[in-house]
Amino acid sequence: MNTHHxxxxxxxxxxxxxxxxxxxxxxxxxxxxxxTEAVTDMVVNRVIDNAAVATASLVRTxxxxxxxxxxxxxxxxxxxVFGTPLTTRVSPEWAAWANGxxxxxxxxxxxxxxxDYSHPADNIPPILAVAQHLxxxxxxxxxxxxxxxxxxxxxxxxLVRAISLHKHKIDHVAHLGPSAAAGIGxxxxxxxxxxxxxxxxxxxxxxxxxxxxKGEISTWKAYAPAFAGKVAVEAVDRAMRGxxxxxxxxxxxxxxxxxxxxxxxxxxxxxxxxxxxxxxAILDTYTKEHSAEYQAQALIxxxxxxxxxxxxxxxxxxxxxxxxxxxxxxxxxIGSGANDPQKxxxxxxxxxxxxxxxxxxxxxxxxxxWHHVRSYAPERAGRPDTVELWRKVTTAExxxxxxxxxxxxxxxxxxxxxxxxxxxxxxxxxxxxxVADAHPLGARPFAREQYVAKFRTLAEGVLDEAEVxxxxxxxxxxxxxxxxxLGELTVTAPDGYLDAVTVPEGIF
Length: 508
Prior knowledge:
Layout: E1 2-7, H1 21-30, H2 37-56, H3 61-71, E2 74-79, H4 92-104, E3 112-113, E4 117-118, H5 124-138, H6 142-162, H7 176-188, H8 192-204, H9 220-240, H10 256-260, E5 267-272, H11 297-309, E6 319-326, H12 328-334, H13 350-353, H14 357-367, H15 378-381, H16 384-390, E7 393-397, H17 399-406, E8 417-423, E9 428-433, H18 448-459, H19 465-476
Helix pairs in contact: 1-7, 1-8, 2-4, 2-18, 3-4, 4-5, 4-9, 5-6, 5-7, 5-9, 6-7, 7-8, 7-9, 8-9, 11-14, 14-16
């Protein structure tokens, strides 16, 4: 591994391109290192996972609106759009947009948490869209697509390990723009110069505040990573046409680090694979068994287990208080430490509720289960006994859970907490969990069988059985797919299914 020391440089330094982080990332993207079997297998899993959650969101309004926008931009050869026929093709940046929203809408695909947050599978829609569009023209196959996705994962994870964006209230998609641009560069076999400028442009245009994840969370939460993917496609296109980027984008005295992150005196150590070293970052990421913020995954498992073991706790009259002792992030972002009254509002949006650990704990405790639709239904959120129990749930930061959250030791890193329940009779129940059941170190780690089962579950009532089997066959042959077969990496809904949702007319 190589460590790149990132700091701010005045313009007078005339920092050589080869010493800039964007160049180091571009070099990583051009390294022809072979992809390992384990990494390839996990790429297949995540392609299946993305399709699963996109399928379940097809008739929700944000994906429907994004799909309508994409369909207004037909193109040949173009790329596919989730839900539509295989022959329906749109311009690749718009396919990246529509498919990115569908993947992100339910907050249900993979995650990686370190110095910052991320959903690395957000890289897949833009890279796949470009692969489908240029497959025949450039002779791209499943092998090239896998390599591009591996680069996207590697760069996003490496940036997330080293550089905190949320500390400065910058949305985490600022790491996604560069990673997706680099992944497309690997896919297409572009040179380092072109990828360097694409990375710079993608970063420059994807920095935004975290207000999209604060207070009353809007539908834009699903659009933010899709926008980064769309911007990445456009950035690569411009770079291929010889257009340059703000340089140095990270290190400049008016650049990202100096003015958006830790300031002129900042310093970061970004650890990247050296030449010829396998790109294995995807193996450190993890998917979700439940449709909710990742920090809620383990706590859903704990709450549903406690509720099943002690069913009397489902009655709010038997409970005085429930306090979750957890990490800084869980407390301040999705817990009561956020000081967002919306996190206790029964009429709050789904996007707000899936970022409310008090709500999630109350419902999982009462139901002994979690469902991507039923658990967020307005009638579920508004149930009087749930509201009463929900408002007895608070969170508190615990230094030890914060330390474990940030630990670099995979065996110690934790995303859970300790629930302390005080009952009306004065008794107490105290239980804790470190990682979700589906985590690689959890009680029931996800493997191919679980990814396929998740796809089948979320496709139930949406896709015809023949379409389910067709997609699973194609996805599991990903590394061997021909150029013509790349266009089959999508799902088609039955005739009339997408008509269940309509969106107002826009500009396009």
